[in-house]
Amino acid sequence: MAGWRAIGVIGGMGPAATADFLARLVIAAGATRDSDHPRVFVDSNPQVPDRNAARLGQGPSPGPALATMARGLVAQGAEVLAMPCNAAHGWADDIRAAVPGLFVDMIAAAVAETLVLRPSRVGIIAVGATLDARLYHDRLAATGVEALDCDRAVVQPLVTRIKAGDTGGEVRAAMVAEAARLAGDGVEVIIAACTEVPLVLRAGDSPVPLVDATAALVRAVIAAARRPAA
C-alpha cells in the first residue's frame, strides 16, 4: 500500500512473542479494510543461537544469524525492520551494519516511553542476557535514572515455562508477585523487558506503571513505517 513502508520482522525468539507482536501490529495500523494494512515480511527463526548462552560465553553469537535474517527481509522488500526480542538487541549492531538505517530499536522505544513518566528508579523484568548486557541500565543511567534488576532466579524459569506454552495461573501469579516485589523495593515504573513477560503480565497487574516493551516497539514501528501524507 502506498501509505506504508513495508515492515520486516526478525522473529522467532520466541515464536509466541513474535505472534503477539504481529497481532498488536494489526490493531495498531488502524485499518478498516485489508488493503489499508502495511505489508509485513516475517522471518520467524527459532534456530537463532540462544541469547543467554551467548552472553555467558557458552554458545555462538546470534549476531550473524540476525544479520542474515535482516538482509533476507530487505531483499524481499522490507523498508523498516523490527525485532521483538529484547535480549537479541545485545547484537543489534550486527543488524545495523548489515542494513544501515532501517532498524527500529526496541530498547530505545521502551526507554523513551519510560522517561515520559519521569521516574527516578525503574524495575527491569528481563532474562539474564538482557540484564547482563545492561541494555536498559546504561540508557537509563545516562538520564540519571536508576535501574533495579528483577530476581532472575524467579523470572528466567518463568520465561522458560512461557516459551513452552505455560501461561496459566501459577505462572501469572508468580510474575505478578515479582512486579509487586520490585514495587516494594521502591521502583516507580516497571519495564516488561522480555517479550514473553506481557504474555502473562498486564498493566493492571502491576502496582506501579508498567511499560510494555513490545507495545512500545509496535508504536515505534508504526510511526517509522507510515509514509507522510502527500
- Secondary-structure element series: EHEHHEHHEHHEHHEEH
Portion of residues within helices: 40-55%
Task: Write the CATH fold name of the largest domain.
Answer: Rossmann fold
SSE class: alpha/beta
Number of domains: 2
Question: What distance separates the N and C termini?
Answer: 14 Å
List low-pLDDT spans.
none
Oligomerization status of the protein chains: single chain
Q: How many beta strands in the DSSP annotation? A: 7
Report the β-strand fraction as a percent range: 5-15%
Q: Note the overall shape.
A: globular
* Rg: 17 Å
Tell me about the largest β-sheet: 4 strands, parallel
Average pLDDT for all residues? 97
Quick tags:
230 residues, alpha/beta, Rossmann fold, 2 domains, 7 strands
What does this structure look like?
By secondary structure, the protein is of the alpha/beta class. The chain folds into 2 domains: 7-105 and 216-225, 3-Layer(aba) Sandwich (Rossmann fold); 107-213, Rossmann fold, CATH 3.40.50. Helices cover 44% and strands 13% of the residues. It is built from 10 helices and 7 strands. It has helices spanning 15-28, 51-55, 63-76, 92-98, 106-115, 128-132, 137-141, 152-163, 169-184, 213-225, and strands at 7-11, 40-44, 80-82, 121-125, 146-149, 189-192, 210-212. It has a 4-stranded parallel beta sheet with strand order 5-4-6-7, sandwiched between helices. A 3-stranded parallel beta sheet has the order 2-1-3, with helices on both faces. Strand 1 (7-11), helix 1 and strand 2 form a beta-alpha-beta unit. The longest helix has 16 residues, at 169-184. The protein starts with 6 loop residues before the first strand and ends in a 5-residue tail after the last helix. The model has no long low-confidence stretch (mean pLDDT 97).
